[in-house]
């Protein structure tokens, strides 16, 4: 029987809890160390709550990386769940210590930082997973498979929308409202990177140019709380991306529609058990997760039979499970995970959006960094 992968965590909060649940779901990981706070009392109490050895509860990530790398039973992987500005420094410390990295998105606060991490990953021979969790949904795996099989024909239109309402009033931003902690993009960096990655993962075509508009609706806020863009793909398709954290009535409405010459598909993250698919001239089909006609990609990402709902946590756990398979050399050949290259592409998208917005929505080239 394969022993669980020893994992550590830097950071905490809501996303820390989500990551720990995802780690536990399939029994692939065992949390053995962590740097949950720079405050010694908070770090200690967090470690006690998680039943960790007090000697493996740290107050800074640099010490954790150094000491865990020196232990025979040290961690194999670290999970980074901190504000954005710390992603790159923490990842750098553990990569240089020879420890694999699982990092919250975005990978860094600039493309320059992301590219430096990519160079380190290749230099030290470690692996990095970026937790764009929506690509863990079986329905999204199936959508990607349908596009690659040519079921939609020549792609024509890509539409992705992500709406939330939790920033409709001032005062809720926390670190996400501080450019020194979140980076130069607000809603764009927080959920816009998710929207971009979801479309990029399913469509499989690069954006060539974009025209972006970023806006801050709430007075006094330093970063954008809404962003929109028109997209031109290299394959000839046209697209639209819209994200907002000031849309009352929306909790986490992430939707993707892709249309081609022979068919179309539609996915709603708040109803993740279903992928809607239509062939031209035929009625819309409701494709249920792991249901009749499901393919290898859908089945690989499903845990229970159709009709037994899976959702957000299972999608998160799927990335963790796939990363464990990847580290063991057992990942199916047709499964692609968001990695350090995805992180670099995402930061290139963010910087092109910012440049276009600064130029009054001028069409701006999106130059993805070579892999």
TrEMBL record:
Pfam families membership: GFO_IDH_MocA (PF01408), GFO_IDH_MocA_C3 (PF22725)
GFO/IDH/MocA-like oxidoreductase domain: residues covered: 140-265
Region (Disordered): 286-306
GO terms, molecular function: nucleotide binding
Annotated ranges, domain Gfo/Idh/MocA-like oxidoreductase N-terminal: 5-131
Protein name, per record: Predicted dehydrogenase
Organism expressing this protein natively: Kushneria avicenniae
